[in-house]
Design a protein that fits this description.
The structure holds 2 protein chains of 2 kinds. By secondary structure, chain A is mostly beta strands. Chain A contains no helices and 11 strands. In chain A, strands 2, 4, 5, 9, 10 and 11 form a 6-stranded mixed sheet that branches. In chain A, strand 7 and strand 8 form a beta hairpin. The chains are: A mainly beta, B mainly beta. The interface between A and B is medium-sized, with 23 and 27 residues.
C-alpha cells in the first residue's frame, strides 16, 4: 500500500529565502505526482503535476522534481514571499486515478 | 463561472443524526471524489465515482454513503454509524481522459459533531 511522507511538517523562513520541501513515497508504480497548495480552511489548488515519465516541472518560482527510482520528489520555491505561506501537500496518483496524500508541510514566510 | 461548490461551509450535527453534504460541479467532469481531512493530516479518500450511477468505496468508507444520480452532483451522507465524524470534508472532480488528470477541489465543508 502506497505511503506518502512529507518532511518537514512545518517550516518558517524569512522572506527572500530559497527553500525545498520534500516528499517520499514507498511504491514507485505511480501514474503521476502532484503538488497542491492549501490555505487555512480552504480547498486545494494544484501547483504542479509531474507525469511518471517526466523528471521535473516548472511554474514561475516553483520547480518540482521527481525521482521514481528513489521514491522522492522535491518542491523548490525560489525567492519566497509572505504570500507563499500555506500548507503544501504532495500526492501520488495510481493507475486507477486515485490520489494518496502526504500529511503536508506548513510553510510560514516571515516579512 | 465554472467550478465546484460545496455547501454548507460549516455544519453542526448532534450525535446520532445523519447529515448530507452537498457537492456540485459544472465542469462536465465524469469522475468525482470525497475526501476527509483531519487537523495536521493529509486527505483520505472516502468514496469516488467514475461515472453516473456508479461509485466505489475508498480507504475510509465505513459510516458514509453516497449517490451519483446526476453527472454534476455527488452528495455525501455522514451517518450515525461514523464514530468520529468531526472533520473537514473536500469534494473533487476530474475529467476522465483529460491531458493532465489532475483533480479540482471544492472549498470544503467543516463538520462538527456536538
Amino acid at each position: 500500500k502506497q505511503e506518502v511522507t512529507q518532511i518537514p511538517a512545518a517550516l518558517s523562513v524569512p522572506e527572500g529565502e530559497n527553500l525545498v520541501l520534500n516528499c517520499s513515497f514507498t511504491d514507485s508504480a505511480i501514474y503521476n505526482l502532484q503538488w497542491f497548495r492549501q490555505d487555512p480552511g480552504k480547498g486545494l489548488t494544484s501547483l504542479l503535476l509531474i507525469q511518471s515519465s517526466q523528471r521535473e516541472q516548472t511554474s514561475g518560482r516553483l520547480n518540482a522534481s521527481l525521482d521514481k527510482s528513489s521514491g522522492r520528489s522535491t518542491l523548490y520555491i525560489a525567492a519566497s514571499q509572505p504570500g507563499d505561506s500555506a500548507t503544501y501537500l504532495c500526492a501520488t496518483m495510481d493507475s486507477s486515478y486515485k490520489l494518496i496524500f502526504g500529511s503536508g508541510t506548513r510553510l510560514l514566510v516571515r516579512p | 463561472d465554472g467550478g465546484i461548490t460545496q455547501s454548507p461551509k460549516y455544519l453542526f450535527r448532534k450525535e446520532g443524526q445523519n447529515v448530507t453534504l452537498s457537492c456540485e460541479q459544472n465542469l462536465n467532469h465524469d469522475a468525482m471524489y470525497w475526501y476527509r481531512q483531519d487537523p495536521g493530516q493529509g486527505l483520505r479518500l472516502i468514496y469516488y465515482s467514475q461515472i453516473v450511477n456508479d461509485f466505489q468505496k475508498g480507504d475510509i468508507a465505513e459510516g458514509y454513503s453516497v449517490s451519483r444520480e446526476k453527472k454534476e452532483s455527488f452528495p455525501l451522507t455522514v451517518t450515525s454509524a461514523q464514530k468520529n465524524p468531526t472533520a473537514f470534508y473536500l469534494c473533487a472532480s476530474r475529467q476522465a481522459g483529460g491531458k493532465t488528470d489532475t483533480q479540482y477541489f471544492g472549498p470544503g465543508t467543516r463538520l462538527t459533531v456536538l
